[in-house]
Specification:
The chain is an alpha+beta fold. It has one domain: Cyclic phosphodiesterase (Cyclic Phosphodiesterase, Chain: A). The chain is built from seven helices and eight strands. The longest helix is centred in the first third of the chain and has 14 residues.
Amino acid sequence: MRYAVYFSPSEHDALSQAAAAWLGRDAFSGKTVTRPDVDGIERGALDALLSDPRRYGFHATLKAPFELAEGTSESDLMAAFAAFCAGHAPFDIPRVIVSQLGPFFAIVPDQVYPQLQDFAASVVRDFEPFRAPLSEADIARRKPERLSDSQRENLMRWGYHHVMDDFRFHMTLTGPAQPEIAPLLQSVLSDRFAAFVDRPLTVSGLGLFVEPERGAPFTVKSWLPLSGA
């Protein structure tokens, strides 16, 4: 069993529903959602392109998937999760857009916002006591030889390389896209998510996601609003 702390809009939020329709799966219910075809991309190719984000569910990673540390329990984690959400207030990312992050498409902020960076860092730090150390196989899968110095330090210290100064908020919409279909995807995604981009996105709550076994789909075990003053 692995756990992760992700930002996700609430279950019935219009963005959650739009993302589930695009990915073909609702991480709250775990159910498959009928996904329309995209002109210009063969259905099997699109299924492959969406397979990874579909498995993880629509989210932005804050505390990457981890196994529980020795001496901690799921009930301890859930209590800490509830306390964290109760102790932090919601806030807006001033503007988000659909863009490419390397070969992937995602909903991202239009620039780096310090409040968001600080919030993400606090999630990493506060839930660190619950994270079991990475196995050698887990470290190898991250290909540390290809990481920057700071990313390698993050991997060994926090169990994930895209944290702290290397954190970039993103809500993944595709797997790696071939360059020849990237312009089409940009157009399709900009159209499908037009109601949610070029405007603020409220970080209103957090999801505690679970993966019952390695490779299984992630589902939302608990979603709580940020309710601090």
